[in-house]
Amino acid sequence: GAVVSQHPSRVICKSGTSVKIECRSLDFQATTMFWYRQFPKKSLMLMATSNEGSKATYEQGVEKDKFLINHASLTLSTLTVTSAHPEDSSFYICSARVNMGAKNIQYFGAGTRLSVL
Amino acid sequence: GQNIDQPTEMTATEGAIVQINCTYQTSGFNGLFWYQQHAGEAPTFLSYNVLDGLEEKGRFSSFLSRSKGYSYLLLKELQMKDSASYLCAVRDGGNYQLIWGAGTKLIIKP
Q1: Smallest Cα distance from A74 to chain B, Å
Q2: What distance in Å separates the CA atoms of residue B47 and residue B61, rounded to the nearest whole number?
Q3: Are the CB atoms for B94 and B28 separated by under 8 Å?
Q4: Is B104 a residue whose pLDDT tops 70?
Q5: What is the secondary structure of B68-105 as a DSSP string?
Q6: Which residues pair with B49 in a beta bridge?
Q7: Residues B98, B90 contacting (CB under 8 angstroms)
Q8: Number of CB pairs < 8 Å for A and B?
Q9: Does the pLDDT of residue A101 top 90, yes or no?
């Protein structure tokens, strides 16, 4: 399958700081990437859809100014959690969609566990 | 509304067979996916069904009935490493987004 690299895998930061998470498609070009958040024992919650060269599409209830998404190239999307607070602590996962005809499978990065103190 | 139902947790024995069911009610349908997620890790793709019937891939098989809004993932010859959560996701026909079930935690016992 396609490889999606996400970095860092774990971040511990102080309240009020900003954290940037990178998501790269290593062996394919991804015009569309997705950012998810997952709470313990819960399913994936889509935060936003990131489209190369255009603004991200945010889901209802997700603050655009809080979670900045940049998809500057066909292989890189970044999520910046600005002025992080303890309630932002979570598991953030990116995925990239591979165009395979009708399938269009999403492959996931390894995830970033954010802990805000 | 959009809804995907899976059992919360299942237990099975090493070497046995287990079937994880998924029922869905969505406004559109353009394929159903199964993913495996080990604790603390990201999901990995297992299977894709868009037509009715059974898709077999090694020890794992996935079945779809579109008229019943129903799918199952069948795992054979269970191994301890199969202990994980299994996520069912439906691709909405309209916007191509994936709608996720809450996942089924599978516990394998020796």
Answers
A1: 19
A2: 8
A3: yes
A4: yes
A5: TTEEEEEE-S--GGG-EEEEEEEE-TTT--EEE---EE
A6: B32
A7: yes
A8: 46
A9: no
